[in-house]
Write a structure and sequence with these properties.
The complex is a heterodimer of chains A (about 270) and B (about 350).
Chain A (H helix, E strand, L loop, with lengths): L2 H20 L2 H27 L8 H18 L4 H10 L1 H6 L5 H30 L10 H27 L8 H15 L13 H6 L7 H8 L4 H32 L6
Helix pairs in contact in A: 1-6, 2-3, 2-6, 3-6, 3-10, 4-7, 7-10, 7-11
Chain B lengths: L12 E16 L3 H10 L2 E16 L3 E5 L6 H9 L6 E6 L9 H4 L2 E5 L11 H11 L4 H15 L14 H13 L5 E5 L7 H18 L2 E5 L3 H7 L2 E6 L2 E7 H8 L2 E8 L10 H4 L4 E4 L6 E7 L3 H7 L6 E7 L3 H10 L11
Parallel strand pairs in B: 3-7, 3-8, 5-6, 6-7
Antiparallel strand pairs in B: 1-2, 1-4, 8-9, 10-12, 10-13, 11-12
Helix pairs in contact in B: 5-6
Classes of the chains: A mainly alpha (about 270), B alpha/beta (about 350).
């Protein structure tokens, strides 16, 4: 399949998945409400802590801005395919895809992009309303060109998370159930990515590790570009490190997927 | 290119397999909590021979039924032919391709319909899935429109194309599954239980459609089904797989004649009859039969095919005839006997 044909196929897949996702728009509203409530509560709790005199390496406006944008970045970079992929392997639905000239991974990627488009339409107004309410506590002072870096970073973060999910889901070629692994991975990655607590306020002795490990680049790093005090040099180096991690995880996902397909037996499926 | 196949004209061959073999490894676990704990610590891995050196060729344009009891190896065979499974041994070519290489060009020339697994997107109209197949198979706009029009007319589903798939009945959905599978005009169509769960009307429609597609497009069709009506309606040739081996490869008619050489006669008389009045010398056959109902008016007989005419001449001697019917053996019963080992048949001449 030529790159042009692949792009046309992906475009059609995204369209069909958007059409399918719109059916569940009301569900998405409540789902996104749930997504935004967690960071809002965290923001208010940390604001209260700062107001009570807690000494933190960042100020209150950093925390508020971080948590206001957290739900948006988390949604844009998240992936939810590991269990779907493992189920499709186990129950043989993957067979229907393997007999066609279009990879199941294309479909999973298209579904990921499509749902993000629909969720974005729902989530952005919610974030905008909350942002307006707490606008005096926000500290977004980013020059225009840095937003390009933010977009690039969010894109690469989404690729890393997607590849991680493919790796976990593809374990279904060898394991009966990957849901436990997927759950543990989400918890660990959430912590290391800065989803629960900003990495900047984690203990000092953990900082060297936290700054170097790959999952920082799935949520925290794009946010640091917006709210942190990253120098241009740190930002450019960070983007290259993120690119390297993206290439590494995509390479690992491709290898594990290829090996999995070779051992795919689908007995009784 | 086709070394290993003793076939004189490969251009007319759609599928060719020699000594095709597949073995599986699986874990065995004892029942109960203790068994589960033992299994968690030490797994017993066993190997099962699912397909055992089967060989056959299928010509282009043929419709062949692949039959066998559950676990016989027919779905495994189908999966090896479609490229879903890598054979453990032997050689297989479909349209000149090695299926397990899953060459894009190969995948564009085949289609697989699995009766219990959908290829349609659930929440959107089927037309969206067809448009996606248009991109997937690289179809030109005109070819796509012509194919959709032709198939929609044959299946009578034009009005259903704009309805979300989840709103359709099972029968309607299966028609659209077939449409999605055939929109790119595949040379070979693999069908795994295509009529499972359908009502009699929907089944008849699907069978008629498949026969028409075969006639109009020359599509080679390999079908697995537990519904012998599917096989009788569509397949001039059947392959029976049992315990992973090819137990029979030939025409359905030959299979029926071999396993059950007699014809069934059901004769109804105006009044009760006595079989002893039959002139055994003139019939000159070992006619098996009995009086089938309490009134003594209905007689059921199994008569060798060559003696049916003679038997007809004898029947009026027993009494006044009210009705006579002659039928072949029930194919379901024949297949059941073959599967359970009650009957056996020598494979027809190797193809």
């Amino acid at each position: 399949m030529t790159p042009h044909q692949t792009l046309r196929l992906l475009r059609r897949m995204i369209a069909i998945n958007i059409a399918g996702s719109v059916v569940y728009r009301a569900n998405f509203v409540f789902f996104m409400l749930g997504t935004i409530i967690g960071p809002i509560v965290s923001a208010l709790v940390w604001q209260a802590a700062v107001a009570s005199g807690a000494e933190l390496p960042v100020d209150g406006s950093y925390l508020m801005t971080y948590f206001v944008l957290l739900s948006l970045v988390t949604m844009l970079t998240s992936s939810w395919l590991a269990n779907f992929l493992a189920d499709a392997i186990r129950d043989g639905r993957l067979s229907v895809w393997l007999a066609r000239p279009g990879s199941f991974l294309y479909e999973l990627a298209a579904n990921n992009v499509a749902e993000k488009v629909v969720k974005l339409v729902v989530l952005v107004p919610m974030i905008a309303i909350f942002g307006l309410i707490v606008r005096d506590s926000l500290a977004v002072d980013v020059v225009a060109w840095r937003w390009i870096a933010v977009l690039a970073s969010v894109g690469m973060a989404a690729i890393i998370v997607f590849a991680c999910d493919v790796i976990i889901g593809a374990l279904g070629f060898w394991l009966e159930d990957v849901s436990g692994i997927a759950w543990g991975q989400r918890l660990l990655v959430g912590l290391l990515a800065g989803q629960f607590v900003p990495l900047a306020i984690m203990p000092v002795w953990t900082q060297t590790f936290l700054q170097a490990q790959p999952f920082r680049y799935t949520v925290s790093f794009p946010l640091e570009i917006v709210v942190g005090n990253l120098t241009s040099r740190d930002m450019v180096i960070g983007l290259f490190v993120q690119l390297a991690y993206a290439a590494l995880f995509v390479g690992m996902a491709r290898e594990i997927w290829s090996r999995g397909l070779r051992s795919y037996s689908a007995a009784g499926a | 290119m086709h070394a290993g196949f003793a076939v004189s004209d490969m251009s007319s061959v759609a599928i060719a397999a020699t000594d095709l073999t597949k073995t599986y490894s699986f874990h065995r676990q004892s029942a109960g909590l203790l068994g589960a704990l033992r299994g968690a610590i030490r797994r017993r891995t066993e190997t099962r021979l699912a397909v055992d050196r089967i060989g056959f060729t299928i010509a282009r344009g043929e419709i062949v039924g692949l039959l066998g009891p559950n676990g016989a190896g027919k779905t495994t065979t189908l999966k090896m032919l479609t490229g879903l499974l890598h054979p453990s041994g032997g050689e297989v070519r479909v349209l000149g391709f090695r299926p397990f290489e899953r060459d894009t060009e190969y995948l564009r020339r085949i289609a697989l319909v699995m009766g219990q697994k959908s290829m349609l997107w659930w929440d959107v109209p089927a037309m969206e899935s067809l448009l996606l197949h248009k991109e997937m198979y690289g179809l030109a706009d005109r070819d796509f429109r012509e194919s959709v029009d032709e198939l929609a007319t044959l299946l009578d589903v034009t009005d259903l194309l704009a309805v979300p798939v989840r709103k359709l009945s099972l029968g309607e959905r299966m028609k659209l599954e077939l449409m999605a599978a055939l929109v790119h005009r595949p040379d070979v169509l693999f069908l795994d239980e295509p009529t499972i769960g359908l009502d009699v009307v929907a089944k008849a429609r699907v069978r008629a459609f498949l026969a028409e597609v075969n006639r109009l497009r020359g599509t080679t069709i390999l079908i697995t089904s537990h519904d012998m009506d599917d096989i009788e309606a569509l397949c001039s040739r059947v392959m029976i797989v049992n315990h992973g081996r090819l137990a029979y490869d030939g025409s359905l008619a030959h299979l029926v004649e071999t396993v059950q050489p007699g014809k069934f006669m059901r004769v109804t008389y105006a009044s009760a009859v006595d079989l002893s009045a039959l002139d055994r010398d003139r019939v000159n056959v070992a006619v098996e039969g009995d009086v089938a109902d309490p009134t003594g008016c209905v007689l059921s007989l199994t008569v060798p095919r060559s003696e049916v005419g003679t038997m007809f001449a004898q029947l009026p001697r027993l009494g006044e005839l009210a009705d006579v019917s002659v039928a072949d053996a029930d194919v379901d019963a024949i297949i059941r006997d073959l599967f359970t080992g009650v009957a056996a048949v020598r494979p027809e001449v190797a193809r």
